[in-house]
Specification:
homodimer, about 260 residues, alpha+beta, Alpha-Beta Plaits, 2 domains, 6 helices, globular
Chain lengths: ~260, ~260
């Protein structure tokens, strides 16, 4: 059986039409597959751990593809890919996993971080990586609201309606942490979300709903009602994509060779 | 006597031909003076705390100008300026100081931070804000080398030769701290430098020299020789501008009204 090659990627989502390969558009997966084709001199189809929408960033997206015995070894593949990919994509790691590994199906947890800059002064260095919300946000209320979402639930209210049609919408949320952070000298609020898997736009709808609570437009208890309603209109608006980063994907340790 | 109005600015140096006003070029000072002219309906000449070269960023540059009794009050001036300045400049604060205050001459200390990303994997989110050095750096050696620079010295070796001609080149360095930092998920080494004032390119030549030591090309003791030689060739190369940020300027508390 052939092994699997696994790449870790950082990318700036502002520069691409999303992660997933799309004919005629510059997407992250498309650009990396083009670079792989040149580096390995063969056509490669990759699988990604999480689809990210246009504008969403990744610190450590994971993609995998079937290795070939004659493929370049990891450290020189890393160097060639970084020479071949456009600015806005960096390959940060190359590893090998057992045959049958899939960046998507073998993942046991995913972490996303959403950055908000609250208040009257817009951010400068974080402008591309944070949602500017021109209000003060009540951190305690946001934390109380978030606590209702922890555990395994039907998250139908927190995803794009069409994407949920006829699909199982139960997911397990292990952690939502809301932490003030000083990043590049600027004050931000980071929402850290860890779960087994996420529905389309789920993190962005959760964050949009948390901000409704933070500004005082909704109460913390409203979040529980939004969850149990199981319909999209019950939750808050979808937060913009550029505040979101796919931060980390976890695999069982025994996957790695 | 009229009061002084004091602005704090963040800017991304990649977008401008430096801080100082220059005819026909887009500079930070020029852009802010144009915005002030529109906001206040009068011509304003500003003084900046520190000139930064093209490519150098600021988290908190300070500029001052003579107030006029009829000027807009601080919070609405802040809003109008942020609507008038181009992307890449954010006004983060507006305050008043006593007459005679000068952002340049009243400053008692300045802090710069220089960010380095060492190692084989280039940064993505920090690409505009850090110098990528494709070597491991020995932190202890860099710290030992830096310790030779603390105190009041003639820093002639660490500045652009022409800028030192016929000028007093003694400066007081209060602190050089070299700290590993995780910024936007990426590993960097931040050199934090605090002193009363700095010569032209002084922080960048200090950092370029510290990297010579960090890579092992020079010993920590070499730094002392570079300092005492009092000539530019004795020190290391000038680190690139985009790793540098003017971080903070300190004024005596009694300046503020």
């Amino acid at each position: 059986m052939t092994e699997t090659t696994v790449l870790t990627l950082s990318y700036d989502g502002s520069d691409f039409a999303g992660f997933a390969r799309q004919p005629g558009l510059s997407t992250v997966q498309g650009e990396v597959e083009t670079a792989l084709r040149t580096a390995l001199r063969r056509k490669v189809e990759t699988v990604g751990a999480g689809r990210t929408d246009a504008g969403v960033h990744a610190l450590a997206q994971v993609i995998s593809f079937e290795a070939d015995g004659s493929d370049t070894e990891p450290s020189s593949l890393l160097r060639s890919l970084n020479a071949l990919t456009p600015p806005g994509i960096v390959v940060t790691g190359v590893r090998h996993a057992a045959a049958g590994f899939s960046a998507r199906h073998s993942a046991v947890a995913r972490e996303y971080r959403y950055r908000i800059v609250p208040g009257p002064v817009p951010p400068l260095f974080l402008a591309r990586y944070a949602w500017t919300v021109r209000h003060r946000l009540n951190l305690n209320d946001m934390r109380r609201a978030a606590s209702h979402l922890i555990g395994e639930h039907d998250f139908r209210s927190f995803c794009v309606t069409e994407s949920a049609l006829g699909k199982r919408t139960f997911r397990r949320l292990d952690l939502i942490e809301i932490m003030p952070e000083n990043v590049l000298g600027e004050h931000s609020l980071t929402v850290r979300v860890v779960g087994n898997a996420f529905l389309h736009s789920m993190v962005r709808v959760i964050v949009g709903s948390l901000v409704e609570v933070g500004t005082g437009r909704r109460s913390p208890a409203w979040m529980l009602g939004a969850l149990t309603a199981c319909e999209r209109q019950a939750a808050g608006p979808t937060a913009p994509p550029h505040g979101l980063t796919l931060w980390h994907v976890t695999y069982p340790e025994e996957c790695w060779l």
